[in-house]
Amino acid sequence: MLKFWKKKPPAEDKAAAAPEAPAAEPAVPPPAQTPLAEAAAVEATGRGIADSAGDHAADGAAASGDPADAAAQADDDAPARRGWRDRLAGSGFARGLASIFKRHPVLDEAFLDELETCLLTADVGVATTTAIVDELRRRVGKREFAEAGALLDALRAELVARLKPVEQPLDVGAGGRKPFVILTVGVNGVGKTTTIGKLAHRYKGEFRSVLLAAGDTFRAAAVEQLQTWGTRNAVSVIAQGSGADSASVIFDALQTARSRGTDVLIADTAGRLHTQGGLMDELAKIRRVLGKLDPEAPHEVLLVIDGTTGQNAISQVRTFREAIGVTGLVVTKLDGTAKGGVVFALAREFGLPIRYVGLGERATDLRVFDAAAFVDGLLPASLGRG
Ligand SMILES: Nc1nc2c(ncn2[C@@H]2O[C@H](COP(=O)(O)OP(=O)(O)OP(=O)(O)O)[C@@H](O)[C@H]2O)c(=O)[nH]1
Ligand SMILES: [Mg+2]
């Protein structure tokens, strides 16, 4: 497992050293080597296929000589070195906790009441908040804590324990599945397409070949957005004309990925609400159609949740789990003013693996979820500071 925040792992080092340049092997062979893939895909749909970056996979953004791209890349690398605390410190949750510890050097009932309010306000959820505060109250009553520092340690342990079970990183190399198919789903605007761009960046940095499928056929702009990420990461994007059938695009992409021997296929989908029955049915269709080529695909259904959503995230998970099954979560937008507590509520309610968290908008702002790093990012580093 990659632990960026503790020590720079080799993969991250590689990514930083050769950010946009093609890896040991090109991400995608030139189309001339894959006529069957293109032909098969065209045949399957009767429509032309736009393979936006495939022809230029080796001409990555950095290799393009475009100063704007180079600058963006330089920008991208800097935040990767910034810690979780740096990113989470601005959240209401972190600021609330810091303020309580500052204002209450004495561990009394007022301290615990404020802590309770802070956890509830941050969307930790009633059940988890009550359990944590009751446990701390019991220990304060028994005078286990002489000072706030000791309670801070206990609170940290309580919070980490609740997230540890969902700290289950995604291993796209597991089981030798090729391509490993990831389907990203979620409501509108949660960060699906951005997450796909970040994942492409990450997997390329791990020297894996990646293909993207523009399965959000709802808006023309969605295809362009994905293609921009594809170009930045020198990764091919399989897309069709606007109004195309999403399942057909993703099916084509899987055929192409198989014939190219691609390591990871990541499919985008349109944002949808649980009330949009037709769109929810479309997800079941995608699974059905992929199953014709690979009964196990998609190998990962990543539900993307906006970290600022609050308790509504719970009903989102429920709905998508029923519609297509969900195997992992990505919680985005935990930087800035996000409350972040919803991560605890999700962990308690579903126990679904939290694969990644989004700590910003850049390619390097996706972290493998780590319970301790996340909690440490929220809690004051030490008392009197933070
Ligand atoms: N601050 C912050 N912004 C993010 C993060 N992830 C995504 N965003 C922003 O959220 C906005 C929506 O992101 P998209 O990736 O377009 O979301 P989407 O789910 O694909 O949206 P639809 O396709 O319209 O459903 C964009 O402005 C992103 O830059 C994150 O981790 N932190
Ligand atoms: Mg999108």
UniProtKB/TrEMBL annotation:
Compositionally skewed regions (Low complexity) per UniProt: 16-26, 59-73
EC number(s) stated in the UniProt entry for this protein: 3.6.5.4
Top-level division of the source organism's lineage: Bacteria
Residues holding GTP: 186-193, 268-272, 332-335
Pfam family, one: SRP54_N
A biological process from GO: SRP-dependent cotranslational protein targeting to membrane
GO molecular function: GTP binding; GTPase activity; signal recognition particle binding
Predominant location category: membrane
Catalytic activity: GTP + H2O = GDP + phosphate + H(+)
InterPro entries: AAA+_ATPase, P-loop_NTPase, Signal_recog_particl_SRP54_hlx, SR_rcpt_FtsY, SRP/SRP_N, SRP54_GTPase_dom, SRP54_N_sf
Enzyme class: hydrolase
Keywords, alphabetical: Cell membrane, Cytoplasm, GTP-binding, Hydrolase, Membrane, Nucleotide-binding, Receptor
GO cellular component: cytoplasm; plasma membrane
Record's subcellular location: Cell membrane; Cytoplasm
Topological relation to the membrane, as annotated: Peripheral membrane protein
Region (Disordered), start-end ranges: 1-81
Function: Involved in targeting and insertion of nascent membrane proteins into the cytoplasmic membrane. Acts as a receptor for the complex formed by the signal recognition particle (SRP) and the ribosome-nascent chain (RNC). Interaction with SRP-RNC leads to the transfer of the RNC complex to the Sec translocase for insertion into the membrane, the hydrolysis of GTP by both Ffh and FtsY, and the dissociation of the SRP-FtsY complex into the individual components.
Assembly information from the UniProt record: Part of the signal recognition particle protein translocation system, which is composed of SRP and FtsY. SRP is a ribonucleoprotein composed of Ffh and a 4.5S RNA molecule.
Family: Belongs to the GTP-binding SRP family. FtsY subfamily.
Entry-linked NCBIfam families: ftsY
Name of the protein described by the UniProt record: Signal recognition particle receptor FtsY
Classification lineage: Bacteria, Pseudomonadati, Pseudomonadota, Gammaproteobacteria, Lysobacterales
